[in-house]
Amino acid sequence: MARRKYVLKTRVKFMIAMLVIGYFLLTYVQQELRIRDQYAKMEYLEQQIEQVEELNADLERQIEYTKSKEYIEKVARESFGWVKEGEIKFIEKKN
Q1: Residue 4: helix, strand or coil by DSSP?
Q2: Between helices 10-66 and 69-80, what is the axis angle to 10°?
Q3: pTM metric for this prediction
Q4: Which of 54, 69, 82, 90 could form a disulfide with 76 if both were Cys (CB 3.0 to 4.6 A apart)?
Q5: 58 Cβ contact list (under 8 Å, min separation 6)
């Protein structure tokens, strides 16, 4: 008994080819959307990093300012009422 060769019809070949192409197109579109989403997240995180770096720089400047003599003198005058030698401090009465 001779074996029969199975030959695919042109229509079936076309449908298989379309399914394969459709699968690859769907996969490509999904990956493209993921990449765009990742770029958007990356941009958002870069903006957050810039904001935190600016805040950090401000805090560093504040730390340096608190170590200065001007700041120490300002706090001593405001909090403790200290005056320099030869200065007169006027106190306003509250009604």
Answers
A1: coil
A2: 70
A3: 0.56
A4: 82
A5: none
